[in-house]
Amino acid sequence: xxxxxxxxxxxxxxxxxxxxxxxxxxxxxxxxxxxxxxxxxxxxxxxxxxxxxxxxxxxxxxxxxxxxxxxxxxxxxxxxxxxxxxxxxxxxxxxxxxxxxxxxxxxxxxxxxxxxxxxxxxxxxxxxxxxxxxxxxxxxxxxxxxxxxxxxxxxxxxxxxxxxxx
Length: 166
What we know:
The chain is an alpha/beta fold. The protein contains four helices and ten strands, in the order βαβαβββααβββββ. Strands 3-2-1-9-10 form a five-stranded mixed β-sheet.
């Protein structure tokens, strides 16, 4: 099994994300879906895992790519922050883009609201925001992806709960 952690929309506040990384020593990759706001190098230095990252609408003058296409554990994944697709066609535009690329999974952020659904053989995944959540309850979220040797993929939207030191 290969495990990856998926984050989005930290908006210059990496503390929650860095705390989550410590909780998963078995992870082998990190996906970040935009709006890191100047913390890209800090994130890359904070983990031994490969970090696959796309630029968000708040990542001004960044050299991070707007879209990324990768293969992870035998699955084709396309990544975008999502604002360009969501503003001009919504989820259907993201799904169409993924289908045109022959992707198994499309990962996106921007809304700060977690979402995971499979449509027409494509999984659409938004991990929500690790630092500025907008869904009911406003609990920061991220996603965990486990890809098994059989090819089965399991996604879980996880809530981040801050641990207080005594």
